[in-house]
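Researcher: We plan to redesign the surface later, but first we want a full-length starting point. Tokens attached.
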């Protein structure tokens, strides 16, 4: 059965769907003897080339893996940098017949949790705006936001690319000029957390991503280090994305719904604990 090029290549671990769509637009992908066009489909007998090199693992793909990486300050999330700056990919383990695909990005001055996977379809589903996956950040700002500012951040603020808002803002305390907050949002626009605070007149002096969906940044994971996700965490991510864990297996609709309910219960418990607690930056656990 013929499928869209970007879906086949993403499943094989060549990149996320968005990344592959960009390659098609740039004319870097050929199918048989012609340049691919957006919307093209390929079947088992087609030969696909990227920058003139044949892509050979279209149906099998690499082993599906997901890791958590603690990104430090100074690293970028691009695979290569013309300015020679270090990237998150410099420290990651090698992948056989595949490559790591970042689930979203963090800017060079933001630290914390990055999820990376060899499964391009999983990365695409988790990043897609329709998924509305929660991202939680610990934010240190210069100054203290009053109740009206916090309400405004949750009602919505007009940015240059449209309205944006935090789903939740929790005061985590602080001393002197610095004050910590925990914020949750469900989209990943460029520098969105920083821009929201700047829009209400406050400057972010430190930003840490402490959670992505059901996966939290563990205190034991030091900056520049990575770890494999546990089977439960990986299963929770696949359930959140509406995907099967492995080809040919199925958790079944009842089990997927049970997983979603379990994730929702844990999220509710974490929010209650965050409201009653203090201490910057507090990292929640699933």
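Model: Full-length starting sequence:
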């Amino acid at each position: 059965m013929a499928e869209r090029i970007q879906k086949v290549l993403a499943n094989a671990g060549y990149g996320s769907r968005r990344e592959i769509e960009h390659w098609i637009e740039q004319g870097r992908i050929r199918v048989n003897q012609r340049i691919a066009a957006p919307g093209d489909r390929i079947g088992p007998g087609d030969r696909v080339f990227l920058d003139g090199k044949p892509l050979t693992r279209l149906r099998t793909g690499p082993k599906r893996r997901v890791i958590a990486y603690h990104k430090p300050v100074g690293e970028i999330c691009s695979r290569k940098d013309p300015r020679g700056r270090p990237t998150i990919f410099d420290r990651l383990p090698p992948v056989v017949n595949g490559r790591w695909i970042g689930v979203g990005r963090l800017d060079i001055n933001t630290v914390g949790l990055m999820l990376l996977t060899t499964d391009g379809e999983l990365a695409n589903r988790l990043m897609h705006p329709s998924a509305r996956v929660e991202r939680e950040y610990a934010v240190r700002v210069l100054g203290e936001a009053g109740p009206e500012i916090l309400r405004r951040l949750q009602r919505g603020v007009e940015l240059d690319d449209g309205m944006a808002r935090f789903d939740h803002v929790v005061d985590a305390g602080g001393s002197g000029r610095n004050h910590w907050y925990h914020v949750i949002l469900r989209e990943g626009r460029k520098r969105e957390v920083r821009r929201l605070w700047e829009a209400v007149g406050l400057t972010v002096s430190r930003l840490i991503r402490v959670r992505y969906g059901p996966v939290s940044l563990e205190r034991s994971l030091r900056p520049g280090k990575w770890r494999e996700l546990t089977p439960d965490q990986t299963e929770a991510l696949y359930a959140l994305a509406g995907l099967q864990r492995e080809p040919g297996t199925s958790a079944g609709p009842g089990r997927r719904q049970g997983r979603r309910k379990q994730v929702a219960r844990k999220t509710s418990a974490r929010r209650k604990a965050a409201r009653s607690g203090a201490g910057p930056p507090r990292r929640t656990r699933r």
